[in-house]
Specification:
Elements lengths: L10 H9 L3 H24 L31 H7 E4 L3 E4 L4 E3 L3 E4 L2 H8 L8 H10 L6 H7 L1 H27 L1
Antiparallel strand pairs: 1-4, 2-3
Helix pairs in contact: 1-7, 2-6, 2-7
Length: 179
């Protein structure tokens, strides 16, 4: 998982203020965000293999999907995992320890198997499952975070440039209003 979060401040406030002056500028910023989310999502989906990462991971749904242990373990289904990777604009916590929220956009993994595959070993690095998974496909951050880490410089640059452009347009409109 990325050690450094992409932190932009003032996104919500800037866009709300800018919308009263220049809706097209807001659309351009949103277009950049949507484009980056789409690229990262497609990249993350590309990391999902057709075969399970471990030989014992079932490919058929569990008989009792809500129970813990082997009987309720989520099946490895490439299409379900890929479909579960989605983008959202809903505001939510990104980093609970630092209180960061997102209002610009985020990627989420909504499938149980996808979340396990993505995050297994992130906090608890013990156990045979974790050791086998890390040996087979590497450490935690195997889908979404892998995509974001791989493209972090481009994402930061494009989103930051788009936000600066939006701020500049807002400032120009505010200056014209003042006379």
């Amino acid at each position: 998982m990325s050690k450094n979060a992409i932190v932009l401040t003032g996104v919500k406030e800037t866009l709300k203020a800018l919308e009263s002056f220049d809706k097209q500028a807001v659309k351009e910023f949103t277009k950049v965000i949507n484009s980056e989310l789409r690229i990262a999502k497609q990249d993350a989906q590309g990391f999902v293999d057709g075969e399970p990462p471990l030989s014992g991971w079932n490919t058929v749904p569990a008989v009792k999907p809500r129970s813990r242990g082997g009987a309720g373990w989520p099946a490895w289904d490439q299409s379900v995992i890929k479909t579960g990777i989605s983008s959202t604009k809903a505001e939510g916590k990104v980093n609970k320890s630092k209180g960061y929220t997102t209002s610009a956009g985020a990627l989420k993994n909504r499938s149980a198997a996808g979340v396990i595959y993505e995050l297994a070993g992130r906090t608890n690095k013990s156990g045979r499952f974790i050791k086998n998974l890390e040996g087979a496909v590497g450490g935690a951050s195997r889908l979404i975070w892998k995509s974001v880490d791989k493209n972090k410089d481009r994402i930061e640059r494009n989103v930051s440039d788009a936000l600066e452009k939006a701020k500049s347009t807002l400032q120009k409109n505010l200056n014209m209003r003042r006379g």
